[in-house]
Amino acid sequence: MFENLIDRLEGSFKLLKGEGRITEINVAETLKDIRKALLDADVSYKIAKSFCDEVKQKALGQNVLKAVRPGQMMTKIVHDELTTLMGSEATDIKVKGNPGVVLVAGLQGSGKTTFSAKLALNCKTKRTLKTMLVACDVYRPAAIEQLRILGDQVGVTVYSEDGVKDPVRIATNAISKAKQEGYSLVIIDTAGRLAVDEEMMREISAVKKAVNPTETLFVVDSMTGQDAVETARVFNERIDFDGVVLTKLDGDTRGGAALSIKAVVNKPIKFVSSGEKMDTLDVFHPKRIADRILGMGDVISLVEKAQEQFNEEEARKLQKKLAKDQFTLSDFFSQIQQIKKMGNIKDLASMIPGMGKMLKDVDMDNSSFKSIEAIIQSMTPLERENPALLNGSRRKRIADGSGTTIADVNRLIKQFDDTKKMMKNMAGAGAGKAMRAMGNMKRK
């Protein structure tokens, strides 16, 4: 998401490159380009104009420090306004209650059912809540079965009533059962339609009135752009939801929904979701998204993803192995598996400042690891633990067994050796050594 907008905004700031100061003329030229970039990203004209008016007012009122160039100052002002436009701060959901009840609403095809399961996994693992999913989509064929399958995947109980077509009855019965059996949280997946209609609105309103949820979330397909924003406005007028969930961020989306919804309905975006994997649900952080849009990366999110996947005890064992020069190809293979669990490798790399632009035209995803995995899996356990044994004949056998070439095997061994040296240096250098090394580099 935002790839085109990132490029367009970068071009806009170049209009101020070389300018000695901010003036009404050069600001006007820059903002004209920024407004076009926002419109191309499917942001409404009204919001784009209001955004640019705010930026202009703040830019012309700024005393630019001698140490700060006009382009840098404009970037900061736009960053701050983007953050404000999207809600300023991350907003948590309310899950406390006896039990807490989250009502999930939205159009058919928006990803409600998948999101419900993702949220259930999130609440179960990160909040340690005993969670129940409730199947209230009684119209869409196989909707209940889909929720049951997803519930099995995430290890969460799914409540449903076969043959019952009354979602209010199903929801209230589910909550009664949850109270009896000590559940902390109930997530209700409701029915949607292909378009907003009165019958759907009456039904979701009735369910909300009956269960009195602690949180009502509106799920929207971010690929529908301004249509998503208009649907959010209509839903909010009828059910007064607490927050928005943007799904399908891995698709070909321009980002207009993320930039517009908060301004239209005055409700925060609480989660963003991408892909079908159950662990691809993230809290929406406006400042971090603004960082990404302006090409600043998102190191905090990258670190958080790493912390979720890397076990501290395993990390300590790995450090000891590195210190004793016992890091093996089996360990290398294990590290690759952990990196893959963090998400799409290109998306992860784009969180590092400057890397997104460098990798824009690079065809790189998690399938890039396949040949490496095949080579390591074609080795014997002894060879993985003792890479020094890999002579010419062994390398040829491994290449044949993995469907690769001897050059591929040689390249992997070199990558392994380089990675081993780098990791050993990182593990062995304390903070003091690192600081002294940096000081020495400066003196040189």
Short summary of the structure?
This protein is 57% helix and 9% strand.
Class by SSE composition: alpha/beta
Task: Please identify which CATH superfamily of the largest domain we are dealing with.
Answer: P-loop containing nucleotide triphosphate hydrolases
- The number of distinct β-strands equals 8
Q: How far apart lie the N and C ends?
A: 42 Å
> Largest sheet, order of strands side by side?
3-2-4-1-5-6-7-8
Main sheet specs: 8 strands, mixed
Task: Give the total of domains.
Answer: 3
What's the overall average pLDDT, rounded? 79
Helix content: 55-70%
Computed Rg: 26 Å
Summed up, the helix count is 21
Per the principal axes of the C-alpha atoms, what is the gross shape? flat
Task: Please mark out the parts with pLDDT under 50 across 5 or more consecutive residues, or reply none.
Answer: 429-444
Q: What is the string of SSEs from the N terminus onward?
A: HHHHEHEHEHEHEHEHEEHHHHHHHHHHH
Write a structural description.
By secondary structure, the protein is an alpha/beta fold. The protein has three domains: 83 residues, SRP54, nucleotide-binding domain (Four Helix Bundle (Hemerythrin (Met), subunit A)); 194 residues, Rossmann fold (3-Layer(aba) Sandwich); 141 residues, 434 Repressor (Amino-terminal Domain) (Orthogonal Bundle). Helix content is 57%, strand content 9%. It has 21 helices and eight strands. The chain has an eight-stranded mixed β-sheet with strand order 3-2-4-1-5-6-7-8, with helices on both faces. Helix 6 links the parallel strand 2 and strand 3. Helix 1 packs antiparallel against helix 2.
